[in-house]
Amino acid sequence: MGCRRFDVTFALTEKKAAKLPALSETVIAPDANNADATVLELDELWSFVMKKTNQAWIWIALCRKTRQVVAYAVGDRREKTCRRLWKSIPQAYRRGHCYTDFWKAYQAVIPEEQHTAVGKETGETAHVERWNNTLRQRLARVVRKTLSFVFRPEEHRQENGLTDERKAISPG
């Protein structure tokens, strides 16, 4: 009986990911004396599971100062997933200011005094947009037109390096 290459690859990836520490354990603590150390850029990245009708959105919170992904959530593009992202942001960073696009879920979840919705032309979300573009360049699975796709939702966490702080810190 044969074994599909995908099954072997996924099993190895799953095993490797299981050995990695949780993202929350690897986040660099912000400098308490620097207000800019907790500034976050939030954005969402479209992908899919098996077929394009099974959309999956990867929501990311990136620290502007360290360029580290401090939290992420995988789900749909509704307020519920945004709320999960917000709750997964470490408390020290949740006090900081957040820059996002104009997506309405952010306005419903992030406290008004901490939130600024901006357009891409301002450059306020440039780092997280660059991180998303780097993912698209390196991983065929998050490219909009692709022959490659994930079979299971948990593959987004493993394949996108969101469980590995080394990849999360340095997109370059």
Question: What's this, in brief?
Answer:
With 172 residues, this protein is of the alpha/beta class.
Structural class: alpha/beta
**Element order, helices and strands?**
HHEEEHHEHEHHH
Number of domains: 1
In the CATH hierarchy, what is the class?
Alpha Beta
Number of helices: 8
The CATH topology label is Nucleotidyltransferase, domain 5
Strand order of the largest sheet: 3-2-1-4-5
Distance between the termini: 41 Å
What portion of residues is helical?
Answer: 25-40%
List how many beta strands DSSP finds.
5
- Mean pLDDT, all residues: 78
Largest sheet: 5 strands, mixed
Quaternary state reads single chain
Rg, alpha carbons: 16 Å
Identify the overall geometry: globular
Proper CATH architecture: 2-Layer Sandwich
Unreliable sequence segments:
163-172
Instruction: Determine the strand fraction and express it as a percent band.
Output: 15-25%
Distinctive features:
Nucleotidyltransferase, domain 5, five-stranded mixed beta sheet, 172 residues, alpha/beta, 21% strand, disordered C terminus, 8 helices, 5 strands
Task: Give structural notes.
The structure is a single chain. The chain is α/β, with parallel strands linked by helices and 172 residues long. The chain has one domain: Nucleotidyltransferase, domain 5. Helices cover 37% and strands 21% of the residues. The protein is built from eight helices and five strands. Strands 3-2-1-4-5 form a five-stranded mixed β-sheet. Helix 5 links the parallel strand 4 and strand 5. The longest helix has 15 residues. The C terminus is likely disordered.
